[in-house]
Amino acid sequence: MSEPLEIRCRENGPYVVKGPVRIVDHLGNAFTIPPGKDTVALCRCGQSKKRPICDGTHRDCGFQANEIAAPSP
């Protein structure tokens, strides 16, 4: 069985998706992912000029999102 797709929540930053992925809009149109990339950073701050792809704007706009998952029992 293959490994599950991993999505990391970067502290005060984007969602980082590792592995092959296809990102589509609400109409089913695919966004262009840069060739040769095995990870994609998705905007969480809502300020990226390349949404849904992160362009690093979160560093300048004061975005804060440092939630953590509940510890395993």
General description of the model:
The longest helix has 4 residues, at 58-61. Helix content is 5%, strand content 16%. The mean pLDDT is 90. It has a 3-stranded antiparallel beta sheet with strand order 1-2-3, with no helix packed on it. It is globular. The protein has one domain (1-59). It has one helix at residues 58-61; strands spanning 6-9, 15-18, 39-42. By secondary structure, it is mainly beta. A hairpin with a 5-residue loop joins strand 1 (6-9) and strand 2. The protein contains 1 helix and 3 strands. 10% of the residues are buried.
What descriptors fit this protein?
single chain; mainly beta; 3-stranded antiparallel sheet; 5% helix; globular
Please give the share of residues in helix: under 10%
Give the helix/strand class: mainly beta
C-alpha Rg (nearest Å) = 14 Å
Query: Biggest sheet: strands side by side, in what order?
Result: 1-2-3
Number of domains: 1
Shape: globular
Order of helices and strands: EEEH
Amino-to-carboxy terminus distance:
25 Å
Number of strands: 3
Largest sheet, in brief, is:
3 strands, antiparallel
Which strand-content bin applies to the residues? 15-25%
Number of helices: 1
Topology (elements, then pairings):
Layout: E1 6-9, E2 15-18, E3 39-42, H1 58-61
Antiparallel strand pairs: 1-2, 2-3
